[in-house]
């Protein structure tokens, strides 16, 4: 383990029922600059969260009682500005897609390298700490146009409705906005998500698109996101 790192200022709650793994993760994250606290189940986590909400929750799926997917789904519904990272032994494609659909920012499969977990938390943390653009509150929105706001972490529709984005959703939409009106290829989207075009699960792209459509629909937003057969996706005007 490297020497203690500068403090990140991020409060991380680790929800893991294995006492050894929980203790090791909390200790490692503390050494890597995070303020980390551990909890063995959903009730103890919710009790602490009610007193002092964390910035990011690291959640194991296989918890006793309320499982990790239920926790992520609940938290995403009530706390949009919250980082959610699933850490689990379940590495099947169906499990990963389900975790992302429920609103997780990242899905890591055990055993997880603590440096990789720390970098994931830092990436999620950057989304949480991005300040609004200097004149975002006073500048009128572009008429009848979809737009990205607050450092591209908020999607706005022509009627003024807004939707908070996760890290992967922001990267996905950022690529589409960069090619507005023309189709972004799957390779372009994979690169935008930080992946390798030769070793990337393309189903993740479809999962992100599906989640964006569902989130927008719940908010009454008619997202003009369309699949282009044989190419990728396009965001229409």
Automatic annotation (TrEMBL):
It holds the Pfam family Trans_reg_C. The modification 4-aspartylphosphate is found at residue 60. Residues 134-237 bind DNA. The keyword rRNA-binding does not apply. Residues 11-125 form the Response regulatory domain. InterPro entries: CheY-like_superfamily (IPR011006), OmpR/PhoB-type_DNA-bd (IPR001867), Sig_transdc_resp-reg_C-effctor (IPR016032), Sig_transdc_resp-reg_receiver (IPR001789), WalR-like (IPR039420), WH-like_DNA-bd_sf (IPR036388). Residues 134-237 form the OmpR/PhoB-type domain. This is Transcriptional regulatory protein OmpR. The gene is ompR5.
